[in-house]
Amino acid sequence: MDSRTLWIQTEQSGRYLFSDEHPFHPVRLALTENLLKHCGALDPAAGERPASFEETEAIIEHIHRADYVKAVRSLSVESPKLAAIADAGRFGLEADGDTPYFPGMHEAAVAVAAGSIAAAEAVMSGKADRALHLAGGLHHAFPDRASGFCVYNDAAAAISVLRERYQARVLYIDTDVHHGDGVQWFFYTDPNVFTLSIHETGKFLFPGSGFTHERGDSSGYGACLNLAMEPYTEDDSWLTCFSEAIERAALAFKPDIIVSQHGCDAHAFDPLAHIHCSMSIYREMPRLLQALAERHTGGKWVALGGGGYDHWRVVPRAWSLLWLEMVRHPLLASIDAAPDGGPLPAGWPDIKTTMSPDGPLPTTWLDDVASWEPMPRRAEITEKNKKMLELALQHIG
Ligand SMILES: [Zn+2]
């Protein structure tokens, strides 16, 4: 294992919980940590502590609009005032919406950002080469409103630290099945932050943006790249588009550091989207990012979590594979040698929780895709994605 990789503690972020019924749930973190512990690949207690609350709060107040942060604060108390509740919808926080306010929301969302800032700071200062903060990746939050389960944009907070403290050129790569819209719009006119997002096309999926013609604006034109994938895209087409786009972007942009977002909701089992990929992309994308960082940023790589709503079957394996790649764990040799990735360690899902899986749990690292029905429109989908990729790359040097 490689000691130049930091795990950022996530215990404070466990309070970022809308309700037990809400799809964005910290049980995903607990299951991932348990799986990694069973592999002997993690001691979370030894992880790096998040940045201080006060420091993070100041950064959040700097990147988000003052009236929005004030609204989040007012809605975070046990019994918010009627005026604050009446205003919640204006800030994307209405009780019956996707991102409902809850007691302690401000503190929990600041805690999430604190982890991502610590990760960025550790890597850019040279304390580590790589850092992973799985509670982060809240990529839909806007400067002035919450959206898509995201209150404060921890990725934007971390990138702003990299810009302002280090003047670093940041390549942000978003692998969530939903367009990384918040981060894109935060830096849309900034030529020093390149945002690249691969996702299911906004024609069919939230948030309805992320088309190839979104390429940045004013001096930031060209520092934005969107791969809008067809519904039912499978592994090969996804990975072809991803690998070519990240290489072209890095070559043209010459980043100092890579910040990646690892929502794992492009898996076929995910209930919120229609992409039909298997666990293989969650083995391959971290491998491609590690190699990209080696070639273009001297290894500097910050990775964050994100979406992923099949809590038991998908997220723990996907995020564990990411960490194993980041630490270059010897277990990867056996995972790569077996078509199904080989067996998961016994007992990995035994955590203390009131949540339970809907059905049988996976027993191997990768999926047995040979037993899956092939997509009837595979050739047509692959061709459409290829054309989309050509269009997306037109403006990249
Ligand atoms: Zn997502």
UniProtKB/TrEMBL annotation:
Keywords: Acetoin catabolism. InterPro entries: AcuC, HDACs, His_deacetylse_dom, His_deacetylse_dom_sf, Ureohydrolase_dom_sf. Pathway: Ketone degradation; acetoin degradation. Pfam families: Hist_deacetyl. Residues 22-323 form the Histone deacetylase domain. Belongs to the histone deacetylase family. PANTHER family: HISTONE DEACETYLASE HDAC1 (PTHR10625:SF10), HISTONE DEACETYLASE HDAC1-RELATED (PTHR10625). This is Acetoin utilization protein AcuC.
